[in-house]
Amino acid sequence: MIIEIVKNNEGFLYAEEKNQIFKYEHDYQISSYELVNNIFVYTIKNFKNKIFHSENSKLEKFDFKCKHFNKIEYSSYNLLPSEDWHELIDCWSCHNNEFASVKDLKIKVRPKGLLISSFFLFINKSDLPECCQDHNNSESFIQDFKSNKTIKLWFNELENVDHKKVIFDYLFTYFKYNNIFIFKYKDKIYEMKFFYTLDFFIINKNQYTKSMKIGIRENPNLYFKPKNNEFINDFYIEMIYNEILYLDIEILNYKTGFIFC
């Protein structure tokens, strides 16, 4: 069972069985309920349990380890701009596109530095742990980048990464500025619609978390830009699809669900 707390300690409780709610003791009042596609939806109020999560989910420091579980040392890092940033270049200028050359700049990482995106990082090859310097003794998880001095590592090629949190942080930020996320999974194009953020309580685990309520549906008429594969790989696309906690309830022809970390 899960509780969706929308505002002022009011929200909805979802249960598969009508009497399931009496197996757990929690301080709330039920004002009404309805049966929707075999899911009992209870409207609750005066939910008393204390919320303790932080509003900002994003990590402020990074503790990456290589595939051999050795720490990747760095002295500084910078966050890369979001995808499609180059499409905004024309908006920066009121003259004759004087910033066009910015598109052709090559990524250069400072010594002992990292450039970090939502799902990957750039690092100088010389700054990798010693265990990763010999390519002959390592798996082919390293993708050489441009000059071969700077390489791109997807987070799933590293250790000590909370992939579920990576996904949540990305979508949490993405939906601040966008309402629809389009992705391709197993040759099908899906659109994910953002409804709202909420407090989320999993009753049987006694666990609070920040969550987003979303809708998802297949839409073959949408255009998926192949270039999107440059900033998010198949590993994270599959996680996004599979980590959704689906409800057997539709809103606006979207199958609804929750994403949480």
TrEMBL record:
InterPro entries: UBQ-conj_enz_E2-bd_prot
Name this protein carries in UniProt: Polyadenylation protein
Organism: Vairimorpha necatrix
